[in-house]
Amino acid sequence: MKDVYTESILLIERLHRRFLDVVKTELDRLKIDDINNVQTLILYNISAEQLTIGELTNRGYYLGSNVSYNVKKLVENNYLVQERAPHDKRSTRIKLSDKGLELCKRVADLYQRNVDRLSKEMDTAALSGLNKTLSQLERFWTDYINNIHKIK
Question: Which residues in the chain belong to E strands, given as ranges?
Fold first, then answer.
C-alpha cells in the first residue's frame, strides 16, 4: 500500500505540472506572452465572478504563496480589474476585464478540445471513478490536517 500511495502522490503532482504545460503550450500557440499558465488558470477559475483575493485562495482557485503578485500582474496586463468594495473601502474585489474574458473563452475552447479527444480514449465512467477516488484522498488529507492536534 505504501508504494501505491507514494506513486499516487507523485502522479498527482506530475499531472498538475503536465496540465500547466498544456496551458503554456496553448498560450504559445496563441502567441500570448504577457501572462503565464498559472495566471491563466486563475482567470479561468474566476470566470464571471467578482472575488476578493482571500476568496480566490479559500475557494482553492489558486495554490501558492504569491497570489498577490499574480493578481498585481494580471491587473497590470489588463486581464483583471481591481475595485474597492463599496461596503468596505479596505477590501478590494477583482473581476475579469474584456481581455480576461476573451482569454477565458480561449481556455474554454482548449478544455473542449481536450474533452473531445479524451472521450475517444477514456469513458465518462472511468473519469468519474477517478474523480471519486481523488475526492476521497482529498477528504482523507483534510481530515488528517483537521485532526492533527488529536494525534499529538
Answer: 80-84, 92-96
